[in-house]
Amino acid sequence: MHDPIALAVPFFFVLIGLELAWAKKRGARVYRFNDAVTDLSCGITSQIVHLAWAATQLAIYAWLYERARLVTIAPTWLAWVVAFVGVDFLYYWWHRFSHEVNVLWAAHVVHHQSEDYNLAVALRQSVITGWTALPFYLPLALLGVPTLVFAVVHALSILYQFWIHTELIGKVRGPVDWVLNLPSHHRVHHAINERYLDKNYGATLIVWDRLFGTYAEEHEPPVYGITNALGSFNPMWAQIHYWFELGAMARAARRPIDKLRVWIASPAWKPAGYAPPSVAPIDRRKKYNPRASRAVVRYVGLQYVVVSAVTFCLMMWHGAIATGTLVLGGAAVLGALVAFGGLLEGRRWGVYVEGARLALGAVAVLVWLRS
Q: Which end of the chain, C or N, has fewer beta carbons within 10 A?
């Protein structure tokens, strides 16, 4: 069975194109090329790395289901209902803890770094959130939700969340607003306005937030990003930057207990001895937006089409591709993403990385042709 996320990739790009056209018709600017490229690069990085362990994660669930389930639910309508409610409920708690515990936030922060809000942001993901979320879902295996049912429902939950990352759909009134997670709700979640922080964790349903006191309605215009802005278009730095920040806090902490507490404390907590960087008030905050030449933008745009197509092929047919070709191809894709970030920031090293990844890509093609 093909990964539903891989099958949905062409539709993601079609919908992003439609959002761009809709925004242009309304005279709104919801995309910046450099930021959108970084969003997509983080998503591609996540998917490339995901190829290495996706089967392992599902195998862990399957092993627990086969060896340790407490009850058996036949894969009928009941199994699907239990899976839907269970996945949504457990996602809420994984998501909430990912904002309240530093080691989980270090992974999840990637999804919140963009200072824009559009469909491309939905694809901005960490390479390790699959592992941080897996323990939260394992109770479903114990409760007898079959592996295939869990995998499909979990994928559909992720797919649902794609469309709510848009500014072009306003508030929806009525019963649906009380039940489903909608764009207005999720804009609140991505905002750093004080009244919006740590709110609206739902996946498909918003009812858990209403029940557990984490719901907030959209009122003032949201300001997007993270409180200490990333300030980079490098997708690899985006994946690891908060780990370095945690390491700096642990080294600066005066008390030994605080050096340990850093890793499990709330991101809002700072140990004595650590001086956090100054952050501009959100009403004076400027988006990170270095200018690249038109030639660079055109080059990156054209190359991105190729890289996206290669990524789609790797996601769809990785099981039929020789390991050597898969590793070389994946490395070339990751190198391209780093190079594109460097080129868009005007970094000299971006040219050298791009040259190296083109050479690596050529080697990958040769190995593939000979295999």
A: N
Distance CA 125, CA 38 (A): 11
Q: What is the pTM of this model?
A: 0.94
Q: Measured between alpha carbons, how far is residue 214 from residues 188, 340, 370 in Å?
A: 11, 38, 56
Q: Read off the pLDDT of residues 79-133 as tens digits, 9 standing for 90 and up.
A: 999 999 999 999 999 999 999 999 999 999 999 999 999 999 999 999 999 999 9
Contacts 24+ apart (CB under 8 A), 365-370: 367/322, 367/324, 367/325, 367/328, 368/321, 368/322, 368/325, 368/329
Residue 242: burial class (beta carbons within 10 Å; 0-12, 13-18, 19+): buried
CA 271 to chain centre: 28
Cα angle 236-115-285, degrees, rounded to a multiple of 5: 120
Q: Please tell me the distance from the alpha carbon of residue 268 to that of residue 304, in angstroms, as a whole number.
A: 37
What secondary structure, in 3-state letters, does the chain show?
A: CCCHHHHHHHHHHHHHHHHHHHHHHHCCCCCCHHHHHHHHHHHHHHHHHHHHHHHHHHHHHHHHHHHHCCCCCCCCHHHHHHHHHHHHHHHHHHHHHHHHCHHHHHHHHHHHCCCCCCHHHHCCCCCCHHHHHHHHHHHHHHCCCCHHHHHHHHHHHHHHCCCCCCCCCCCCCCHHHHHECCHHHHHHHHECCHHHCCCCCCCCECHHHHHHCCCCCCCCCCCECCCCCCCCCCHHHHHHHHHHHHHHHHHHCCCHHHHHHHHHCCCCCCCCCCCCCCCCCHHHCCCCCCCCCHHHHHHHHHHHHHHHHHHHHHHHHHHHCCHHHHHHHHHHHHHHHHHHHHHHCCCHHHHHHHHHHHHHHHHHHHHHHHC
Q: Using the structure block, give the residue that is written with the tokens 């990085």.
A: 45
Length of the chain measured in residues: 371
